[in-house]
Amino acid sequence: MTVLLGWEAAEHGGGDDAALRLAAGLARAERSPVVVATVVPPDAGGSIASRVDREYRQWRAALTATRQAEALTGLRAAGVDDVRTAVVPASSVPSGLVEAAGRYRARVLVLGAAAEAPAGRFAAGSVAERLLHSSPVPLALAPREWSAPAAPRRLTCAWAGTARSREALAAARGFADRWGVPIRLVTFVPERAAMLPSETGLRIEQVVSEEWAAQVQGSLDEVVAGWPGPGRARETLLARGAGWAGAIAAVPWEPGDVLVVGSSRVGPFTRVFVGSTATKILRATTVPVLVVPRGAGGSPTPS
């Protein structure tokens, strides 16, 4: 098994090597090699190529080699000795990375944030957007300009008492067992700001929110109580705040934390497919996120 790093062959990589650092940390946790995969357009058919075509191919090959050498140097400096590179011809970058994930038996596919993402946050570019609705392997997403000095130290699993939550938790337990780290279960409770002059509707929403939170907490306690073995969760948390950003900010995050979220039940089985809730979480979180495919944890317990 490998950690697959999607690495762009561009003249300007944005100056952000957060994905590279995340891949290094995951490789150390997995005790697996990193495969640096760069997807390039396939060469046009036929043996006759114009001078411009030949010059373009030479330029593209040189740029790809330079970018991959930069990644190799960075990963080895981060303590990863087993680094491999792969150039994948494909009609699109997402399809090429999916092909590489199968070819190199990727445990996880690591991607960086779009260049326009705010510092410390994740925003999906066109490649990540496609893979967030199609990847057959878990996606590890690095916030822009994120850095951590070591491998993951704790997994925080988003819990809502649903089948998706149970699948995410089952997958998180698998990672936690291999990495030797604890799991924390967190339920996010985003709250609306007060509306004036009338707050009647807001009070009703708050009552409903309280009842839902109590139900979720009850299901969480039940899961934790029946969770034997060394991978047992050590902490549960109900995180309240103004909107998703406030709820996520209410969680005490530490270096080495990784947030785990599941895929929507409307997505295809064994594929990543983020819904509206997961999308809001991705935009608000300040730590790396591990998005697991639907069914990644096996058959879910009915919720």
Q: What would your notes on this structure say?
A:
With 303 residues, the chain is an alpha/beta fold. Helices cover 38% and strands 19% of the residues. The chain contains 8 helices and 10 strands. It has helices spanning 18-30, 51-77, 93-103, 126-131, 163-179, 200-225, 243-249, 276-284; strands spanning 2-6, 34-40, 83-89, 106-111, 139-141, 154-158, 183-191, 235-242, 257-261, 289-291. A 10-stranded mixed sheet has the order 3-2-1-4-5-10-9-6-7-8, sandwiched between helices. Helix 8 links the parallel strand 9 and strand 10 (289-291). The relative contact order is 0.15. Mean pLDDT is 84; it is low at 195-208 and 299-303.
Secondary-structure blueprint:
Elements: E1 2-6, H1 18-30, E2 34-40, H2 51-77, E3 83-89, H3 93-103, E4 106-111, H4 126-131, E5 139-141, E6 154-158, H5 163-179, E7 183-191, H6 200-225, E8 235-242, H7 243-249, E9 257-261, H8 276-284, E10 289-291
Structural key phrases:
ten-stranded mixed β-sheet, elongated, 10 strands, Rossmann fold, alpha/beta, 8 helices, 303 residues, disordered C terminus
In short:
With 303 residues, the protein is of the alpha/beta class. 38% of the residues lie in helices and 19% in strands.
Overall tally of domains = 2
Mean pLDDT: 84
Terminal CA distance: 32 Å
Count of alpha/pi helices: 8
> What's the CATH H-level homologous superfamily of the largest domain?
HUPs
Which fold name is given in CATH as the topology of the largest domain?
Answer: Rossmann fold
Q: Report strand %.
A: 15-25%
